[in-house]
Amino acid sequence: RGKTDPVLQLEKINVTFDGFRALTDLSLSIGVGELRCVIGPNGAGKTTLMDVITGKTQPDNGRIFYDQDIDLRTLSPVEIARAGIGRKFQKPTVFEALTVVENLEIAQKCDKSVWHSLRAKLNGEQRDRISEVLQLLRLTEFSKRSAGLLSHGQKQFLEIGMLLVQEPHLLLLDEPAAGLTDAETDYIAELFRRLAGKHSLMVVEHDMGFVESIADHVTVLHQGQVLAEGSLRDVQANEQVIDVYLGR
Ligand code: ADP
């Protein structure tokens, strides 16, 4: 795969809920190694977009290609995860009674067939990966702490780590900066910039300051459609975007 090839390509996706159009003819393409932000007001369809990519919601029509030729509409949510698409929801969902490192171990085992894997010992390479991820998420010194005792921000970081140990190609992150301290937000921005290239990232975010600190490319959704797309600067100068989202 070349740098300019899309890792994900949505073509004319429509989603309706009881006649209500949540996504209308939505087309979107994310390049390999790209860090894309998706912004837009409440109800714009951002969560629905994530749900469609991960197989949680089936679109009425349209096509979704992953890695050029894998048609995601033919795969189950589990198969989509296995194909290398990891999603982080807005609220952290770590195992609170387990320690930090146990959470990472479980996450690393669970992408393979469950019983076989849960009983298997981690190999050296997998342990190294966990150490690396603990460091990356600044959790090394907390690795033996129960996850329930972590701060909100640390739980968010741990959950990103639980995705990273599975070596996803494409990371979908729903408002990862929500509830983080300023220092944590700065660090997560730095982390995302570092992950881009090796991984592709799609970040749904409300906090424009955070978007400014990470994104080279932004998609603005409004009423289930792409209102604007391009560099952050172009999008911020777009009259329609200012009207419906940024305000004057
Ligand atoms: P966002 O994440 O940008 O706030 P959503 O994707 O959650 O937007 O929602 C888009 C629109 O679709 C909203 O008007 C919402 O009320 C509607 N919607 C989302 N999910 C459902 C559902 N399961 N049933 C009915 N309407 C829904």
From TrEMBL:
InterPro entries in the record: ABC_AA/LPS_Transport, ABC_transporter-like_ATP-bd, ABC_transptr_urea_ATP-bd_UrtD, BCA_ABC_TP_C, P-loop_NTPase
Protein name from the UniProt record: Urea ABC transporter ATP-binding protein UrtD
Lineage, top ranks: Bacteria, Pseudomonadati, Pseudomonadota, Gammaproteobacteria, Enterobacterales
Organism: Pseudocitrobacter cyperus
PROSITE patterns for the chain: ABC_TRANSPORTER_2
Alphabetic keyword roster: ATP-binding, Nucleotide-binding, Transport
ABC transporter domain sequence ranges: 8-248
PANTHER family in the cross-refs: CONSERVED COMPONENT OF ABC TRANSPORTER FOR NATURAL AMINO ACIDS-RELATED, HIGH-AFFINITY BRANCHED-CHAIN AMINO ACID TRANSPORT ATP-BINDING PROTEIN
GO terms of molecular function: ATP binding
